[in-house]
């Protein structure tokens, strides 16, 4: 939360952007400016992110999600303080609802990190979800890279808490903690709708309130019912993680490289906390550490990274393809005439789309040959 700090040493080379050189030299002002350029998608931001990539891969990225009112911000504040007390540096990205007027974060305010105000080794940044279904934009993924390259030991992403679409956080975080407030059957039912599948651990926060014991029991019963399902470690319960691309071929992610035995699935623990007082936070940290150790020892960490990069590349390709198509449509004078032809039943949407894509497809085919 200050201008100076300690980070990685900069690389030598005339092609390194001065801003990135300052970031790698541990200057918080450069880190803040880089993230601002990333969030605003300013000209040249992609070059900055590309230069950051070689310096990433060391941070432990933790996702904190759950329904609104579960106490995510308070718990993140206490989690960051616990890590700092242990001598670790922390970066926090709080994903806030996007303003309908500016597109910026609505709730962004450092007051939510009250326990860490003035700590130069806690960097807090509030970012807008920008309408992304899962509450995470591509800019957030890039901002994580900036914090990682800077040298932060722990990076915490706190999401909006918009429901089952929060599954997008799996593609960014190594460990996902789902917070569930006590005494709310509706929240536990919501977990059945999908968010249950992304949790590496559950946190029943505000455990001093009535209904906490019941919530813990319901969660345990849900996990027991899932015991017969095939699970793959670490944000790992969905089908997307059963195979990965390795050297152009599909390989079973549940086996050791080289065809060894399957990795035992991770069983998500349930931790009870009272974030306001700090009760249970040490247990929460221990559970996070256990999952990190599991990922490293089982080889799941590399598998998750491989999948994350594959998904990131696909996302960027979709974004760029949309941009190219938008330019092509504009060059054709827009879609008004095509729409009129469809309305008159002289054409149809498939024919229009094929006509627009044809020159692009031909170009790609020519280059492939």
Characterization of this structure:
This protein is of the alpha/beta class. Strands 3-2-4-1-5-6-9 form a 7-stranded parallel sheet, sandwiched between helices. It has a two-stranded antiparallel sheet with strand order 7-8. The N terminus is likely disordered.
Q: What keyword list fits this structure?
A:
7-stranded parallel β-sheet, about 15% strand, 2 domains, disordered N terminus, about 375 residues, Rossmann fold, alpha/beta
| Strand-residue proportion | 5-15%
Number of domains: 2
**Helix-residue proportion:** 40-55%
* Cα-based radius of gyration, to the nearest Å: 23 Å
CATH topology of the largest domain: Rossmann fold
The largest β sheet comes out as: 7 strands, parallel
Structural class: alpha/beta
Shape: globular
Uncertain runs:
1-12, 99-111, 230-261
What is the ordering of alpha helices and beta strands? HHHEHEEHEEHEHEEEHHHH
Arrangement of strands in the largest sheet = 3-2-4-1-5-6-9
**What is the CATH H-level superfamily of the largest domain?**
P-loop containing nucleotide triphosphate hydrolases
Number of strands: 9
- Average pLDDT works out at 80
Main CATH class of the largest domain: Alpha Beta
Ends distance: 53 Å
Number of helices: 11
CATH architecture group name of the largest domain: 3-Layer(aba) Sandwich
């Amino acid at each position: 939360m200050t201008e100076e700090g300690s980070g990685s040493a900069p690389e030598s080379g005339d092609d390194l952007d001065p801003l990135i050189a300052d970031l790698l030299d541990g200057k918080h002002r450069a880190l803040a400016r880089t993230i601002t350029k990333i969030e605003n998608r300013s000209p040249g931001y992609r070059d900055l992110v590309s230069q950051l990539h070689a310096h990433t891969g060391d941070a432990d990225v933790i996702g904190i999600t759950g329904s609104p009112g579960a106490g995510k911000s308070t718990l993140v504040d206490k989690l960051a303080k616990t890590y700092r007390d242990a001598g670790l540096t922390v970066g926090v990205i709080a994903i806030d609802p996007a303003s309908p007027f500016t597109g910026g974060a609505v709730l962004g305010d450092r007051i939510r990190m009250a326990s860490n105000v003035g700590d130069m080794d806690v960097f807090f940044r509030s970012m807008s979800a920008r309408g992304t279904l899962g509450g995470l934009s591509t800019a957030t993924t890039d901002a994580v890279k900036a914090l990682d390259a800077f040298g932060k030991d722990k990076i915490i992403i706190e999401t909006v808490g918009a429901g089952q679409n929060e599954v997008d956080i799996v593609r960014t975080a190594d460990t996902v903690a789902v917070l569930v407030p006590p005494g709310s059957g509706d929240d536990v039912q919501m977990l059945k709708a999908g968010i249950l599948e992304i949790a590496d651990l559950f946190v029943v926060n505000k455990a001093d309130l009535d209904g906490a014991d019941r919530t813990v029991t319901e969660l345990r019963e849900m996990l027991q019912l899932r015991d017969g399902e095939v699970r793959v470690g670490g944000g790992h319960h969905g089908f997307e993680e059963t195979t990965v691309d390795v050297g152009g071929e599909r390989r079973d992610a549940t086996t050791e490289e080289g065809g060894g035995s399957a990795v035992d699935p991770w069983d998500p623990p349930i931790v009870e906390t009272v974030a306001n007082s700090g009760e249970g936070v040490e247990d929460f940290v221990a559970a996070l550490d256990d999952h990190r150790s599991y990922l490293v020892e089982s080889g799941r960490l590399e598998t998750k990274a491989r999948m994350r990069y594959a998904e990131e590349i696909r996302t960027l390709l979709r974004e760029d393809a949309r941009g190219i198509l938008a330019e092509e449509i504009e060059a054709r004078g827009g879609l008004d005439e095509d729409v009129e032809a469809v309305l008159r039943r002289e054409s149809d949407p498939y024919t229009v789309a094929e006509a627009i894509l044809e020159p692009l497809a031909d170009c790609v085919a020519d280059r492939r040959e």
